[in-house]
Structure formats: C-alpha cells, structure tokens
User: What shape does this take?
Amino acid sequence: MNNKPFIKRALVIGGGIAGIQAVLDIADGGYEVILVERSPSIGGHMIQYAEVFPTLDCPQCIMTPKMVEIAQHPNIKLMTYAEVQKLNGSAGNFEVEILQKARKVDVKKCTGCGTCWQKCPEKVSSEFNAGMAKRTAVYIPFPQAVPAKPVIDTEHCRYIHYQQYMAGKREGKKPPECRICEKLCPVGAIDWEQHDEIVKEKVGAIVVATGFDLMPVSRIPEYADDPDVLNGIQFERLLSPGGPTAGVVIRPSDGKTPKEVVFISCCGSRDPEHGVPYCSRVCCMYLAKQALLYKHAVPDGQAYVFYIDIRSTGKGYEEFIQRVVEDGVLYLRGKVSRVFREGDKLRVYGADTLSGKRVEIAADLVVLGMAVMPSDGTKELLIKLGIAFDEAGFVAESHAKFRPLETNVPGIFVAGMAQGAKDIPDSVAQGSGAAGRVLTLFAQSASADKALAVV
Amino acid sequence: MDLAYYPGCTLKTRAKNFETSALAAMSALGINLVELPRWNCCGTVYSLAEDDLIHHVAAVRNLIRVKEQGKNKVVTLCAFCYNTLKRANLVMKDSPDKRYAINIFMDEEPDYYGEVETAHLLQVLRDDVGWEKIAGRVKHPLKDLKIVGYYGCTLLRPQSVAIDSVERPTILQDLLKALGGTAVDFPFATECCGAFQIVNNRDIITERTAAILGSAAKSGAEALAVSCPLCEYNLRQTQSSTKQPQSGVPVMPALYFTQLMALAFGLDLAVCGFEENSPETRAWLKNKGLIS
Amino acid sequence: MRVELSSKRLRSDFVKKIAELSGQNLYLCYQCGKCSAGCPMGFAMDILPNQIMRLVQLGLEEDIANSKTVWLCASCLTCTVRCPRGVDLSRVMEALRLLTLRKNKNYVEPSKMPPETVADLPQIALVSGFRKLTS
Assistant: This one.
C-alpha cells in the first residue's frame, strides 16, 4: 500500500443518462464528483428523443430536473465541452488531464440571453437535431441545455475564418469579419482570446459512461441515400414536440405528410457481414414506439415494421408491442432487400416470410433501426485510460456475471451503452450501480488494500 | 502501351462491335490491346460447386497463356469473361488444396499460383488512363444524350471481384460524363436481366428487361451503356420481340460503352458497328445528332 | 399433412451433400428473408429462396425437387452480397441443381430447342445456359 491518502473524489466521463445518474448518486452520497462531457451540454442521446418506451414519458420533462440538479449541486463540478486526455496513477490516486475546449464565451459574464445565437448569420447542421435542422455557429445545442451558455463553434464561425484568412492559414475568398455576436452581446461575454486549456484534477475513482452512436446509414448502401430515409434518432426529432417541425411529421424531401411509413429493424445489427453481430436491444422497442407515435400524429397513415424477431424482454415491453400491433401497425416478418427512389415515393422490396410472399411498398418515409455502436472516439479514450474493450469496442467488464460494472483497471467502472447495447432503465440502473461501487470504494478506503481487493 | 487482351468467344462472333470499337478507342488513347496469341473459352460461368474443379481449368489455362507472354495482367471486355477469369484466379491464389489439384490435373502446363491480374477495361480506363485524359480525347461530346450505366451482375458480384461499389457503382457514369454525356442514375443499374434463362424461359427475360428498360425510361434516359454481351442481347431481344408501344416496353438502344467512346472520340463509324446493335440504331443516332 | 422430423432426416445424405457441394454452413441462415425480398427471379418462383434454405435445413428433399425455384436462379448473386449471415445462396442453389444434373438428367433438352433459337442465341447464352441447366 502506498502512503498517499485515498482521494474520495470521483470523475464521471459522459453526460448522458447513465453518467447523469452516476454523478447524482455519488454527489448525493456525500462526495465530490466531476462530470466531464465533450459536447456543449449534458443530456446525451436521451434528451433527443420524443417520448420513451414503454411509458411514453417525455424525456425533456423527466430529464431536465436531473440536469438542472447537476448544475446546482454543491458536490458536482460540471465540465462541458471538455474531454479527458490523459490518466496517470491508480485507484485512490488518479491524476487526470482534462482538455477544456475554448467556448470563446465568458460563462461568468454570459447570462444566456440568447441574443448571440439568434443573430449569428452562419447556419450549420444541428447535431442535436441529427441534421434535421440548422443551428448557428454560436449556439446552445437545445433550449434546455445545461449549462445554458453558448459556445462558438470555431470550425464554422465567420470571424474565426476571417482571422485564419488574415493569418494566411486559410485559402479562397476573404470571409466577412462578422463579429455580430460580439457587437450585440449586452454583457461583453464574447471572448476571442479564450483558448483551450488543460485542467488537472485528482480523483480516487472513475466511471466511464461514454454512451453510443448509431452506425452510419451508408454501411447498408442498398437502403438508399435519400432525404426520406432517416435513422431512428432523426425520426425522433421529427416526432418531438420540441423538434424542428414541432412534432408535425413531414416527409423531408417536400414537407408533405407521409402516409405510408416503413420501419426496418436490424439495420446493421445481427449482420456480421455488413455491420455488427450483436443485437442492439433497443430498436425493436423504439421502432414500435415510433410507429405508434406516427399513428398518433397521422391517424390515417399506415406504418409497417419489418422485423426478424421481436425482442421485447423488458418490463411492460411485450404488452407495449401487443398494443402497437393491435393499434394497426402492420408487422412484417422479414428483412428488406432494397429501398430506392421512384418518383416521389421510395420503393421498398421486402419479404413477409410468414405468408411466404415477397412484398413491395411505395413508401413516403423509411426509418432505419441502425445498430448502436460505442460512441465515436470511445476506443481512443479507452486506450488512454488503459481499459480493455471487446471486438465491437464496448468496455470489457471484468466478469460478465459477477463484476459487470468493473473494468480491468481497479477504481474505474463502467455504466450505460459504453458497456454494451442497453435501454434507458438498464443504463440508469448501471449508472446507480457504478455510483454504488464508487461509494463502496470510498467507504472502505480507510483500509485501501482491502478496498482495492474487492474492486 | 501494350496490354494483354482476352476477347472471349462472343466478341468474335455476336459482339464484334464491342471488340472493334474497344480496340479503336483504346488505340486512340495510346493503348494497344494485344490479343493473346492462344486462348480458349473461359467457361462462361464460374463453377459454384466445391468439388467441381474441372470447370476452372479452362479459365486457368487462359491465365497461364497470359503468363507465357511475360505479362501479369490481362484485360477483358466481356463482363462474364471478367468474372469467370477473376474468380478462377482467386481459387488459384487463395485455395492451396484446389490449386494443387488443378495444377496436378493440368500436367502439361506449368504450375500456376494466381499471379495474373484480370482487369476489366473499365478499371483500366479509371485507374490507368484516368477520366481527365479520356475527356481530353473527346472530339464530339455526347452532349444532350441522357444515358444510364447498366452494370448487370458480373462486374459487381461477388464483392471479391467487384470493380466498383457493389450497391452504388459510378464507374460507367463517370466514363459517360467524361465523354460529355449526361449520366443518369437509375435504380435498376445492378439488377439482373435474367442472364442465361434466355435459353429456356423468354418470359423471364421479357419481365426483367422490361423492368430495367422501364426504370431507365422513367429516370429520363434515352439509352443504356452496357458491358455484357448477354445483357445487350437480352435487352435487344425484348425490344424486338415485344410489340411497342402496346407492350409498354420502352425502345432504347443498349450500346457497349466502347461504342460510345469511339463515337465521342470521332473515330471511323465502321469500328462502332452500330448496325449490329439493331437496324434502327444508326437512324436513332442520326436523329440525336450524334452522327451525320 | 404433417412432416415427420427426425435426426435421420435432419442428418440425411441429402443435407450432407448440399453442405459439401455448396461449401456453406446451412445453419447460418436465420430466415430473415432478405434473399427472397431482393431476388430478381423471385416473381417466377413457386418456393422462395429463404424457403429453399429452410427446406434444406429440414432435409425435405422432395419439396425442393418438386419446385422450379433452383432452375430459375440466375446466379446473379444479389442474395449473396446482401445476406447478413454470409450464406452464399447461389452455391446452395448450384448444389441443388447438381443433385439432379449429376443423375444425367437435363433440365433443358438442347436437342429439343428450336434450331432458329439456337442459331439466334449468342455463345455466351448457350454456354452459360447449358452449363447451368444440362448435365
């Protein structure tokens, strides 16, 4: 045992629902905890959803209190727009280097009034809206963002481009100097001199909750590169009352109401040849939910769900599927071979293996249940942390049965999709579970040898 | 530059225009396609049975002929030949047991280990010549000609021999653009025409080719660019055997991409052999203002 | 009518032969039907490609023998490139054709084809057609 004191302070990486739960539980347990999130706001993917299965809760409604609590909790230090860069030490004495990316906004001065992002002339694709809407170059990702302070996206800001051009680091036409945000900010919070910094922190335990991203649609090229072919998150944004269409379901190509909507399960999942071998576990349920929400939004519309097997093993899930089927969503047991454009429709070539028929649908909209994968950059982070991962890039837990939240590094735990495909209740349970492991470690740390022996 | 060239049977008989136009167009680009002094039928279709090695022999013999010429690359025009030679070569390269058996069987031939690369002419155009150089050689751009690239099966499947993206190829469209034409995308570019079912079941071919032609017409195309003599035959056969316009099958020439090259390069029309496509093709081209 | 299943049927020579000739693990197929959904010849088939796979798994040789399906397969490999399980169904179809052809039975009788048809067809059609449909 070394003589350094065991630091009873934790770090949680990732501000999605698993990380949020872990941070709050650790903080409520009486310990200090840092939450590092790489995007400008916490909330993760869950905050993008319209309603969540099987209860049809509104995520904005149920998540916002937790997010606000994080911002206000005396034990929580929230670092958004930040990334863990380096890790040294061991359980009880980790030294972490965190890159705080420059927001170019002085958050102490900024009141979050919104003038800058309302007036910024540069429009770029919105990550929060999964490309279904635009945001400005100075922006908060969504109205309930925590913190509710903007960042300037230096990749797209006109003034940054101007500066680069003047410094000879940018080719082409001279960009406008712009600086509209700076001119209009009532409190002078725009700070062009702000630069990336490295923040060093000492913690005793870490929870990795880096979540997932959807497999790119381009991995299944036979399902058409088309504005009316959406992934699951894009369709969530169309269904969301807070989304770009205020919950009005439209066909992106022309804004018309889609009357025939096809949902395809297992896009890239269970497909070792073109995607990943595992089941993504959430698609059956969210596609059913989306089909139901679509029916609510367009009562005279028809929803079709192509599936291979329906996996509805959570509590209340099978009942939910049955309700969706009873409500008139047509389930077709088979995969789709191709989706292609034909005039103003998408032609879908599918199979219904139950009737032994090949089926064809002239669809207005096609929603692909793309496979979930470890979020972009997970592998690089895990290598920095020295954490083992499996073939798919998910964190390898130290024992699949009895140590499901432990990694191979003592003192580092895992929660949520970072460990493997799972739904919200499981992610929250793991967030709490990982927090419990951290709290146990801190409680036992008086005799650190013993504590580490059980980690 | 000289390239070893394997013609295959159909190019010497029913698709002469494919060969004459290709030789002339390549020569205009400074490439001589040098026909192998000896060659035999490739077997046409690649044998799909594990124990059927005898049918790879014909293809492998041709690859040995290439090696005898001191070459390590052979160019094909016919999409079927390309597929059969390429796949047979993969067997010789990657399956030691099968290679051993085939080499033993071909006692009179030197042992072969899959050293010869089979390339389709489109690959040569894209990778060795380049679209820019081709565009630079164009005398009469195919302007205003809306044309689809119809790939069929054998240039793209299986994945291991695909000359481009299996699901979304662009190589034919890229060539057509280089020739100054308007390349139109259409959803049936990689759909099968029915292939050899023509020997037994013309109805199948009619159904398939009508769907392909219909899709091309719907996409606004006036002609198809092809690389497979069987596709060309099947597409032509349907158009001549069904009664338009009652049948609803659009009339649309299926031209070898090399004919379009020769046309755009302003070469002697004799090398194009348009009369072999159909009696009406020349009139059609005239009508389009592509020939005088 | 019920079909009696037994280990004998599931492990019959028929099943073994198809596995051997095709070189495919027949049990990879999980019946998603993507092959049938995209098959360009599917419109003419009495039994769909995914059903052929299932019948092979079950050892139901007669059902396949009574169907035209394997003779309609054009070996276009659309199913092969899209199969999520990496089954090369074109090889299974070939194996099933060979079971018949190797008994010296032709599916197409070249001598009964009209001479004008034979004269009109290009070599590429005749050779490929006879390779696939005759012994």
User: Anything to note?
Assistant: The first strand of chain B starts at residue 2 and ends at 6.
